[in-house]
Amino acid sequence: MNIGVPREIKNNENRVAMTPAGVVTLERAGHRVFVETGAGLGSGFTDEQYIAAGAEIVSTAGEAWQQEMVMKVKEPLSEEYKFFYEGLILFTYLHLAPEPELTKALIDNKVVSIAYETVQLDNGSLPLLTPMSEVAGRMASQIGAQFLEKPKGGRGVLLSGIPGVRRGKVTIIGGGVVGTNAAKIAVGLGADVTIIDLNPERLRQLDDIFGSTINTFMSNPLNIAEALEESDLVIGAVLIPGAKAPKLVSEEMIKSMREGSVIVDVAIDQGGIFETTDRITTHDDPTYNRHGVLHYAVANMPGAVPRTSTIGLTNVTVPYALQLANKGYRKACTDNKALLKGINTLDGFVTYKAVAEAHKLDYAEVDSILQDS
Ligand SMILES: NC(=O)C1=CN([C@@H]2O[C@H](COP(=O)(O)OP(=O)(O)OC[C@H]3O[C@@H](n4cnc5c(N)ncnc54)[C@H](O)[C@@H]3O)[C@@H](O)[C@H]2O)C=CC1
Ligand SMILES: CC(=O)C(=O)O
């Protein structure tokens, strides 16, 4: 199969969908990889390294996009929709629930879109989301600590406190991969950490992992409201796979927070869990102030640490890309049910229920389309 790897064009998105090591894996299996010139530079991979690995360098995005399968990191931006064509296999993060226009463009052009974030194993885990959630979770506490500094607009709180002065309070809503990794860093910084989750079993696991270094609470509006009133930093880390994030924090709750507190809505890629994170920010201009609270809502946080992120991402995506390339998407997805769950649009239909519900579009069972065609 011919595989294209375009350069990412989102603001400060320095990751790339394939490393030279990934090229070697695919090339040895008999596939050709076409990398847009300069695509790897942000992650420290030169064109020469790709050529040495067996890739062909193409000078335009169009040439990378005209291949049978395109691998990307972030969802295509509107200026990339013109590259869609019927039957294109697009393997990337998509986050379609908050993206009606992208969903429509994929359907109209009958793209076979396979979203990294909905590839799901039988145990419910999301193997192609996990490494980036690890990165974003760890970054969330680091970023929150930074924006709590006065010159950055925060209330001037040092999360660790010092002897004689109390520690800063961090509340993490959602105790999955992002939440756990955010907690690791926040605990390491010496903060007073609370994790709120809806799943009692998950709260038990967190209690086992962190012991008395954290507090755990069941997710309900009262517990969230009480935690927010006294938090310096709140991290949004909830996910319902494929669906729009639930708005768990109301504008009233934000108003109850102290001036200069910070929220980091990691779940913004699925629409965000705060009523007031009604817009996505960028690494260039990452925060805005609402009711005296600094809001950070960058949807591609790992793009800021591309060396770590690109390697972490491709470690997990390349084995799935190899299955798609070796067998074609129909057989690969029929043989591997985790990959099948990744298909969000096919033959002009939305095949992921939560996405269809988010846009009030007809939903078609992916199995039935694969059988019919
Ligand atoms: N902004 C960015 O750059 C990035 C964003 N993300 C996003 O971060 C979000 C979280 O991802 P993961 O941690 O990997 O998901 P996960 O599935 O590991 O964890 C989600 C957690 O939310 C909990 N949850 C569900 N409903 C809840 C509720 N009503 N109240 C409290 N907790 C609830 C679940 O029980 C689970 O523990 C996703 O939207 C993901 O796409 C991930 C990586 C980068
Ligand atoms: C998960 C995701 O969207 C990202 O890493 O940018």
UniProtKB/TrEMBL annotation:
It comes from Sediminibacillus dalangtanensis. One of its GO terms (molecular function) is alanine dehydrogenase activity. Gene3D superfamilies: NAD(P)-binding Rossmann-like Domain. It catalyses: L-alanine + NAD(+) + H2O = pyruvate + NH4(+) + NADH + H(+). This is Alanine dehydrogenase. Keywords: NAD, Oxidoreductase. It holds the Pfam family AlaDh_PNT_N. Coiled coil: none annotated. Pathway: Amino-acid degradation; L-alanine degradation via dehydrogenase pathway; NH(3) and pyruvate from L-alanine: step 1/1. InterPro entries: Ala_DH, Ala_DH/PNT_CS2, AlaDH/PNT_CS1, AlaDH/PNT_N, AlaDH/PNT_NAD(H)-bd, NAD(P)-bd_dom_sf. Residues 148-297 form the Alanine dehydrogenase/pyridine nucleotide transhydrogenase NAD(H)-binding domain. SMART domains: AlaDh_PNT_C, AlaDh_PNT_N. Signal peptide: none annotated. Belongs to the AlaDH/PNT family. It is an enzyme of class 1 (oxidoreductase). PROSITE patterns: ALADH_PNT_1, ALADH_PNT_2. Residues 4-136 form the Alanine dehydrogenase/pyridine nucleotide transhydrogenase N-terminal domain. Its EC number is 1.4.1.1.
